[in-house]
Amino acid sequence: MPTMIRTNSENPDFKRLTDLLDDELCLLYNTQKADYEEYNRITNLPTVILAYADNAAIGCGCFKIHDEKTIELKRMFVAPALRGKGIASAMVTELEHWAKQLGFQEAVLETGNKQSEAISMYQKLGYSISEKTGQNHEIGHSVFMRKRLV
Predict the structure, then answer these.
(1) Structural domain harbouring 79
(2) Domain harbouring 30, CATH code
(3) Which of 61, 108, 137, 144 has the highest CB neighbour number within 10 Å of its CB?
(4) CA dist., res. 29 & res. 56, Å (int)
(5) Nearest 5°: phi and psi at 10?
């Protein structure tokens, strides 16, 4: 299993991986990066994790505060060649653990309906499909999910 580190959104490896994520999502949904930039922009965020294997960043994720008891998972990505090995699940678990340490009780997320592997992974980790959460921007292909952390 890769090594996980806690870092922040200014980490160059996080920026590189989220650029790859944006490229992949644009291809999958036939969109442009600018279409979602205001929703995907992550700056000054102290709750980022990176997964490393052989000294190379291979995955990332983070969470933002949604409200006083809830975090929102964001910008989850694993290098395509390394998917299906449990790396994303380990990253989600680490982010949940970090959020619980900070006193949060629930996690929400938004993913896309063409990302069936992601939806399946989140469901295996205890997330259930839910209604749109308050501050998320609804997009036609959005799938909203949530999980109690306590």
Answers:
(1) 3-148
(2) 3.40.630.30
(3) 61
(4) 28
(5) -90, -5
Residues 52-86 pLDDT 10s: 999 999 999 999 999 999 999 999 999 999 999 99
- Provide the pLDDT for residue 29: 74
Q: Is the dihedral of CA 84, 85, 89, 95 positive or negative?
A: negative
Question: Which one-letter DSSP state was computed for residue 86?
Answer: S
Partner residues linked to 63 by β-bridges: 73
Is the overall model pTM greater than 0.85, yes or no? yes
Number of domains in the chain: 1
Which H or E run includes 90? helix 87-101
Q: For 125-141, what is each residue's pLDDT tens digit?
A: 999 999 875 544 555 67
Which helix (H) or strand (E) segment holds residue 23: the answer is helix 12-29
Other C-beta atoms within 10 Å of 14: how many? 23
Please name which of 54, 128, 115 lies closest in space to residue 88, comparing C-alpha atoms: 115
Strand 70-78 vs strand 106-112: parallel, antiparallel, or unpaired?
parallel
Q: Which of 101, 16, 108 is nearest to 60 (CA)?
A: 16
